[in-house]
Amino acid sequence: MTKIAIIEDDPTISQMYRMKFEADGFDVRMAGNGKIGVDLVKSFKPDIILLDIQMPEMDGAAALKLIREHKGSKDTPVIILTNLGEEEAPSEMRSLGISSYIVKANNTPRQVVAHVKNTIGQ
């Protein structure tokens, strides 16, 4: 079963994606901020990560930096899932190796699931 970590501070959005991914056979774990997300990635060892940018305690850019520093997740595919336009994202995120960038408002949950499957070759 493919494991996905969703790091997103909006519980309604997290639950919506969780239900959609679980319906498609994914093992889903969620974190409500970047700090919890980094710990989740270390313990859960997901096959792919969906990461929001704007979150309390630790934003997505800081979380991604720590995720990439951990040897168990330095090569894990990360998809940025946010409502910020790509040009508004912190520039250092690109250098930290993201697979793609999705604007939530422009994609349905079904499209996000299809994108994730495509990214991991399913």
Main attributes?
122 residues, alpha/beta, Rossmann fold, five-stranded parallel β-sheet, 5 strands, globular
What composes the largest sheet? 5 strands, parallel
Order of helices and strands: EHEHEHEHEH
- DSSP E strands, number: 5
Look at the structure and name the CATH superfamily.
Response regulator
Please give the order of strands in the largest beta sheet: 2-1-3-4-5
Can you walk me through this structure?
The protein has 122 residues and is α/β, with parallel strands linked by helices. The protein has a single domain, classed as Response regulator (Rossmann fold, 3-Layer(aba) Sandwich). It is 40% helix and 19% strand. The chain is built from five helices and five strands; from the N terminus they run E-H-E-H-E-H-E-H-E-H. It has helices spanning 11-23, 34-44, 60-69, 92-95, 109-119, and strands spanning 3-7, 27-31, 48-51, 78-82, 100-103. Strands 2-1-3-4-5 form a five-stranded parallel beta sheet, sandwiched between helices. The protein is globular, with a radius of gyration of 13 Å. The model has no long low-confidence stretch (mean pLDDT 92).
What's a concise summary of this model?
The chain contains five helices and five strands.
In terms of topology, how is this protein built?
Elements: E1 3-7, H1 11-23, E2 27-31, H2 34-44, E3 48-51, H3 60-69, E4 78-82, H4 92-95, E5 100-103, H5 109-119
Parallel strand pairs: 1-2, 1-3, 3-4, 4-5
